[in-house]
Amino acid sequence: MEDNGSIKKMMIILSKATLENVYACFVLANGARMEGIEAEIFFTFFGLEAIHNKKLDHLHIATVGNPAMHMPTMLGGLPGMEAIATSMMKKEMEKIDMPDVREFLEILTASGVKLWACKLAMDMFHYNKEDMISDLDGVITVGDFYKQGSGVGTHMLFI
Treating both helix axes as pointing N-terminal to C-terminal, what angle do 19-34 and 81-95 enclose, rounded to 10 degrees? Predict the structure, then answer.
């Protein structure tokens, strides 16, 4: 069979658990599954907070150093600005029936998205697998993730 360059698998690396990055990652993984494309997410460094049981319900928008906020950095750093921006974004997401982070994770796993935690980052932050969501497929090394991403038609995306 001839390969026509189609995407067969998306390997998404999430390195920051700001609300905007998490939703970008989750929407892309969900979209892949809706198109019949395999999808796996590798949570590394601060991206681990998106699957950490005690942290995933408290993610926020990054207001400092975020050019999409269209506000001076100094203004974004004022007390309460992150909370205001996060609250506003969550209200807008509710209007379009966007699931919260925990529910979105359940949707992703139900659709077959594989969720992996980075072993190095887990060790660095002193996290245990028990700290993470129960649907986590495992804790793996970067090398393991690359092996899973091998093959024609696999694309890797870093968020």
Answer: 20
Q: Where are the beta strands (DSSP E) in the chain?
A: 9-14, 38-43, 114-118, 138-140, 154-158
Q: Give one DSSP letter per residue of 47-77, joined into a string.
A: GGGGTBTTTGGG-----TT-GGG-S-HHHHT
User: Domain tally for the chain?
Assistant: 1
- DSSP letter at 131 equals G
Residues 139, 25, 135, 88, Cα dihedral to 10°:
130
Q: Are 11 and 159 in contact (CB under 8 A)?
A: no
- Tokens 């092996």 belong to 147
pLDDT at 1 over 60: no
* pLDDT tens per residue across span 85-141: 777 888 888 898 899 999 999 999 999 999 999 999 999 999 999 999 999 999 999
Q: Is residue 63 part of a domain?
A: no
Considering only CA atoms, which of 113, 151, 136, 145 is closest in space to residue 28? 113
The residue segments making up the domain with residue 127 are: 9-58+99-158
Length of the chain measured in residues? 159
Residue 86 forms part of a structural domain: no
For residue 44, what is the domain's CATH number? 3.40.1260.10
